[in-house]
């Protein structure tokens, strides 16, 4: 049995390990267009502050399964789902019995005049981070477009390197998908305290150049910002082209069923390239989170090798970020959509903020700033759609709430047993 | 693989297990000296009170483990005993594991900015918490034998009821 995986990231590697567990004798090939072995993508911002850490690359576990055949620097030109074969850019043909599309996503480039040319960056791959680290050595002023997860990490890293940093965000506060206004306000003050300039409710309309050199960034309100280093952190787009050209069902991401099978037989998909279901709202989402990618990879790989594990869906929001010494955790529904029946519990003391969002009997969202002890309990209750209405008053302290919930379940079980 | 079981009806909430865990993870291995160490040694299991019941929350060494999946720095791995361990030097303090552990039993050490979790006391025959429990509410054993003990006790109850 030959298993072929396109993509050497979180999903691809989790799938390879799962396939090995279920089918130790099968042949496993991984194709990647990157020139270096698998690495922890979320760590690439560290390159901006320090050098390249050795352990950014995946390590061999003690007692890990035998080698998979890793083909670096290989781009896939085409996929024939009927003949079950791949055509590589160098002309080589590769047949497969089971195929996994774990092709991920790439950073979106702003469609503004002047973007093409030196000095503008995105931050998605190791190569991106190395280029940005190099630019940070020479530049003095950095402007980051987009104050989401990647933008915030880039801003903090560049500020740490000693650059003057300005963050331009089109929403009214930081990380508007994960945070609400109050959390955004607390974190905004923290960023300003370390010298990062924040501009909200603005967009960048053009990159002004003199020849190749960037001389400024024009904002919609007419201001021009000084900059030598510009980073766009405005979102990612799933790599669906290969699947689309091969006739697979594709929307914003590759469409899959609950076993992560695509519309073509023996082809599975996992990770940032997949369009899946939001575990909280039931809506269709493209995930883009490391944790989700690993889980999807593990389940897709297991299923390719004979298992029948259902993937329950992904958290659209599931983020942990420490900003200047203040830890934050956001999960599930943290910004309430219009309509719907939600009950919100909020508590704020200085820079400590907690918000829990309930819908009828279950927890659907949690936003924590400052004290994140035991936060995973909320993730478990949200994922399990646990009926916590009777003990919701005790959920301010997650473990204590969990203990109450477990106790109530135990008494129920004991009553049922007698 | 040996597991940690909890007999809820026996837990008195004395927290001897938590003290023993912290001391076992200190440099001095002595309660009085441990209190003045920097960083302060942390316990990795938690006794919480819920609805009148004392509930010890311990690391279940899950398989698959949400913390292992979630670690973005490759700092967690599973050892030969099946225990999920932290790799020295790799943890970057992102707290994704804290965010994902459904039992809330991963801790945050502020001093070195690293995550702290139960390591099942690799240097001890029996984990420190189990040794310390005065009522034997914590059991360290194979799932099969623990299950067998419960069945024996239940059989005894049923037999007596039948008389």
Query: Helical element count of chain B?
Result: 6
What is the average of the pLDDT values of chain A? 92
Provide the structure class of chain A: alpha/beta
In which order are the strands of the major sheet of chain B placed?
1-8
**Rounded average pLDDT of chain B:** 94
User: What is the makeup of the main sheet of chain B?
Assistant: 2 strands, antiparallel
Name the overall outline of chain A. globular
Q: Provide the low-confidence segments of chain B as ranges.
A: none
Termini gap of chain B: 39 Å
Unreliable sequence segments of chain A: none
Alpha carbon gyration radius of chain A: 23 Å
User: H/E element string of chain B?
Assistant: EHHEEHEEHEEHEH
- Indicate the CATH topology of the largest domain in chain B: Alpha-Beta Plaits
Oligomer: heterodimer
Number of strands of chain A: 26
Count the DSSP helices of chain A: 9
Major β-sheet annotation of chain A: 5 strands, parallel
Measured by residues with Cβ under 8 Å of the partner chain's Cβ, the largest interface is: A-B, 51 and 41 residues
Fraction in beta strands of chain B: 15-25%
């Amino acid at each position: 049995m030959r298993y072929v995986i396109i993509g050497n990231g979180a999903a691809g590697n989790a799938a390879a390990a799962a396939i090995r567990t279920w089918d130790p004798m099968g042949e496993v090939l991984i194709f990647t267009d990157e020139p270096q072995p698998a690495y922890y993508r979320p760590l690439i911002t560290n390159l901006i502050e320090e050098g390249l850490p050795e352990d950014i690359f995946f390590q061999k576990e003690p007692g890990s399964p035998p080698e998979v055949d890793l083909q670096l620097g290989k781009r896939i030109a085409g996929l024939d789902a009927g003949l079950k074969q791949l055509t590589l850019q160098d002309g080589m043909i590769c047949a497969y019995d089971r195929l996994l599309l774990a092709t991920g996503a790439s950073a979106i480039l702003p469609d503004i005049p002047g973007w093409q040319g030196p000095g503008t960056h995105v931050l998605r791959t190791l190569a991106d981070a190395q280029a940005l680290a190099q630019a940070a050595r020479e530049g003095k002023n950095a402007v980051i477009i987009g104050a989401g997860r990647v933008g915030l990490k880039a801003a903090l890293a560049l500020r740490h390197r000693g650059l003057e940093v300005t963050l331009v965000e089109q929403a009214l506060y930081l990380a508007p998908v994960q945070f609400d206004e109050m959390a955004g306000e607390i974190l905004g003050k923290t960023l300003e305290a370390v010298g990062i300039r924040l501009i909200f409710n603005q967009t960048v309309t053009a990159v002004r150049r003199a020849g190749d050199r960037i001389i400024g960034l024009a904002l919609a309100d007419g201001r021009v910002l000084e900059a030598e280093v510009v980073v766009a952190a405005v979102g990612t787009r799933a790599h669906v082209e290969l699947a689309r050209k091969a006739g697979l069902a594709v929307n914003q991401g590759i469409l899959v069923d609950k076993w992560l099978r695509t519309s073509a037989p023996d082809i599975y998909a996992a990770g940032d390239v997949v369009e899946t279901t939001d575990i909280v709202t039931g809506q269709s989402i493209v995930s883009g989170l490391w944790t989700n990618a690993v889980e999807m990879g593990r389940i897709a790989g297991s299923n390719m090798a004979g298992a029948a594990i259902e993937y329950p869906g992904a958290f659209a929001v599931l983020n942990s970020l420490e900003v200047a010494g203040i830890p934050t955790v956001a999960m599930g529904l943290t910004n309430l959509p219009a309509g719907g029946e939600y009950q919100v519990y909020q508590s704020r003391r200085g820079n400590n903020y907690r918000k829990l969002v309930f819908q009828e009997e279950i927890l659907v969202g949690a936003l924590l700033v400052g004290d994140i002890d035991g936060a995973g309990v909320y993730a478990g209750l949200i994922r399990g759609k646990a009926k916590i209405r009777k003990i919701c008053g005790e959920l301010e302290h997650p473990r204590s709430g969990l203990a109450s919930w477990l106790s109530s379940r135990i008494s129920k079980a004991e009553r049922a047993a007698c | 693989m040996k597991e940690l079981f909890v007999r809820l009806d026996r837990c008195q909430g004395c927290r001897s297990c938590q003290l023993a865990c912290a001391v076992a993870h200190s440099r001095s291995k002595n309660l009085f000296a441990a209190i003045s160490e920097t960083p302060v040694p942390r316990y990795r299991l938690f006794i919480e009170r819920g609805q009148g019941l004392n509930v010890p929350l311990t690391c279940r060494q899950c398989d698959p483990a949400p913390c292992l999946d979630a670690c973005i720095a490759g700092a967690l791995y599973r050892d030969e005993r099946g225990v999920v361990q932290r790799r020295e030097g790799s943890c970057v303090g992102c707290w994704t594991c804290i965010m994902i552990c459904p039992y809330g039993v991963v801790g945050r050490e502020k001093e070195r900015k690293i995550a702290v979790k139960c390591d099942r006391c690799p240097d001890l025959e029996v984990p420190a918490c189990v040794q310390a429990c005065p009522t034997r509410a914590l059991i360290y054993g194979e799932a099969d034998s623990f299950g067998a003990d419960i069945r024996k006790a239940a059989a005894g109850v049923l037999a007596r009821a039948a008389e």
